[in-house]
Amino acid sequence: MLSLTRLFLHNWLRFNAQVIEVDESFYLAGQDQDGLAALDAIQLALVADPARLRFGRHPRGGFTYDVDAYARGRLNESQWLRPGNTVSYAVLEFADKRAGGAFTLGVCVEAGSHRPVEQTFFILPEALNPGVFVTTGRPLPRIELRALLRNRRGAKSFEHATDYQAELLNQLGGLDEDFFQLFPRALRFEPIHNIDEFVNAWVLAEHPLDLTPLRRARERLGPLQAEVERIEKRIAGLQNVLEHQAEARRLTDQRDQHTLLAALLRASAAAKQAESIQEQIAQTQ
C-alpha cells in the first residue's frame, strides 16, 4: 500500500529546502499559514489542474493564495519574500512499505513579477533526493531540470497538466479521475452539519447535464416532421391511385364478362336461327 512519506518544499512561501517527514501523519507548527502552504503544495503536486485547485485564503491579507503567491512568498498586499524571479519546488515521496520501493513526483515552478507562472511536472522512480532539485542552495530552473531528467532512467517530465495527470493516476495505483475533484475538497473538509449536503457532495457523483444533443435533436425534429408529412401525403396519393386502379380492374373484368356473355347469346341465337331454317327446308322438300 502506498503512503506519502516525505515532502520537500523550496521557495514555497516561507519554506526553503525543507524536508518534512510525514510517516503516515504529521503536524505542522510554525508561522502563520505554514500549514496551509504545505497542504496546498501537496494539492498542486497531486492535482496539477489550475481549474480544480482550491488554495486557501489568507486570514488577514484579504486575498486567496495562488501558485505565484506561494512561489514568490506573498505575505500581504504589498510584501513579498521573493519579489523578483524565482524557482520553486513542491515534491512528494511515496513509498510502498510492504512491497518495498519508492517514487518521487512534483512540480518545478518559475514565477516573477512581470511574467506568467510556468510549471514543469515530473515523476522519478526513486526515493526523494533534494540534491537533485537544489544544488548548493541553487534550485534548478525548468530547462536544466528537463535536461537532467532526460538522462535519468525512468524519469519523466510533463509540460501539460493533463499528460501528468494521466501518468499520475497510474503511478498511484490506477486511481479514478474523480480523484482530481475529490482531493481538493477533502483538504478543505469541514464538520458535517447538513447530511443532505454531505451526501450530495461526497456520495452522489456529479454528472453535468449536456443539453446539446437534445437541442440538436429538437432542431432536426422540424425538418423530420415536415418530411414525415410529405411522405404521408405521398402515401395517401398512392393509396388513391391504388383504389382507382382496383376500380378500373373491376370495371374491365365486368366489361369482359359482359362481352363474353353477349357473344354467347349471339352464338346461341344464330344456332337457333340455323336450326329453324333447316326445319323449314326439310318441310318444303
Account of the 3D structure:
- With 285 residues, the chain is of the alpha+beta class.
- The chain has 2 domains: 2-203, N-terminal domain of mukB; 216-285.
- It is 46% helix and 18% strand.
- It has helices spanning 34-47, 67-71, 142-150, 161-171, 179-187, 195-203, 212-284, and strands at 2-10, 18-21, 86-96, 102-112, 115-124, 134-135, 138-139, 156-158.
- The strands form 2 sheets. The chain has a 6-stranded antiparallel beta sheet with strand order 2-1-3-4-5-8, with helices on both faces. Strands 6-7 form a two-stranded antiparallel ribbon.
- Strand 6 and strand 7 form a beta hairpin.
- The model has no long low-confidence stretch (mean pLDDT 86).
CATH class of the largest domain: Alpha Beta
The level of helicity is: 40-55%
Q: Tell me about the biggest sheet?
A: 6 strands, antiparallel
Distance between the termini: 137 Å
Report the CATH topology name of the largest domain: N-terminal domain of mukB
Q: Taking all residues together, what is the mean pLDDT?
A: 86
Q: Radius of gyration, Cα only, in angstroms?
A: 44 Å
